[in-house]
Write a structure and sequence with these properties.
mainly alpha, single chain, 302 residues, 74% helix
Length: 302
């Protein structure tokens, strides 16, 4: 590779980044989501622990009633999807947002109502069913965003993901032509993930270790970029600020590309997981309905 190419190409990354290198609007990650849910559960525990009420008192009863109503209202979203006369009642994304909100608030109210104490067998079954449904919903939300455009967007396709990630063009490779080792590492990473895995265990292992493998490749690329930009800055007399801006642009390009490759590689697996999740989630919902009815009947009879 000619020396002129290696000395001039880094400067091209100083231009405003195109859509392939712009960072995507960040969505709530799995860690942040789990942390938020954990804080809400801790709040419900604090209310039940120090609220000064029992499950059978007026306050406790009303908390359970409010939570039960919220859980019933969860069925509005599937009804909105399956009955045509409800299709004109506002965009589906708002119904889905309501479904998710109620799916979090309802269990929290019921947890506060129970004070995290199981008083009878039917109450224990109802509480366990509700916990399974709520946990299943959180898992489903995470998988959903991996195969749709955002939280409320339409279902994505593998071809669309490849185009968004810039994997259908040589644009990324041309911008990194000054760094052949980086370019080669990215190409090898994509090629390795594009190879179909016939062994199911190996496929699961690849899926489970994908993030770690991406971080390893990114670290190698950053190390090489640091060396190249340090040498180039020394030869061209760049100041520290200019070097860091252009180095940051190159790192962002590599990071975005790796994220795109990873998302494309995970797409088919997440599709299968979402189908399996739907098969498991629906029976859990029915189990929750029956156990909740049994609990309400038992409470008012005895």
């Amino acid at each position: 590779m000619q020396q002129t190419l290696s000395m001039q190409s880094p400067t091209r990354l100083n231009a405003p980044q195109d859509k392939a290198t712009k960072p995507r609007k960040r969505e709530i990650g799995a860690t942040a989501m789990l942390l938020g849910v954990s804080l809400l559960v801790a709040g419900a525990w604090a209310i039940g622990r120090w609220g000064g009420f029992t499950a059978g008192s007026r306050v406790g009863y009303n908390l359970g009633l409010a939570g039960g109503i919220m859980m019933l209202l969860l069925f509005l979203y599937p009804l909105r999807k399956h009955f045509r006369f409800m299709h004109g009642f506002g965009p589906a994304k708002y119904w889905f947002a309501l479904h998710m909100t109620l799916g979090i608030l309802g269990p929290l109210f019921i947890l506060a109502h129970s004070r995290f104490h199981v008083g009878s067998i039917n109450a224990g079954i109802a509480l366990a069913s509700m916990s399974l449904v709520a946990g299943s919903g959180i898992i489903g939300r995470f998988i959903y965003t991996r195969i749709h455009h955002g939280l409320y967007g339409r279902r994505a396709s593998l071809q669309e993901l490849r185009e968004l990630a810039g994997l259908n063009s040589k644009e990324v490779q041309s911008k990194l032509a000054f760094a052949p080792k980086v370019e080669g590492a990215l190409a090898d990473f994509e090629a390795a993930l594009a190879t179909p895995q016939r062994n199911r265990l190996r496929s699961v292992w690849t899926f489970a270790t994908l993030w770690l493998r991406g971080r390893i490749v990114y670290t190698r690329c950053v190390r090489e970029l640091n060396r190249l930009y340090r040498d180039h800055a020394h030869s061209q007399g760049w100041d520290h600020g200019k070097t860091q801006r252009r180095l940051a642009a190159a790192k962002r390009l590599v990071r975005t590309y790796l994220q795109g490759v990873q998302r494309v590689a995970q797409f088919n697996t997440y599709e299968r997981l979402f189908s399996l999740w739907h098969v498991l989630h629906v029976p859990l919902v029915y189990m929750l309905v029956f156990s909740a009815i049994a609990h309400v009947v038992a409470v008012h009879m005895y």
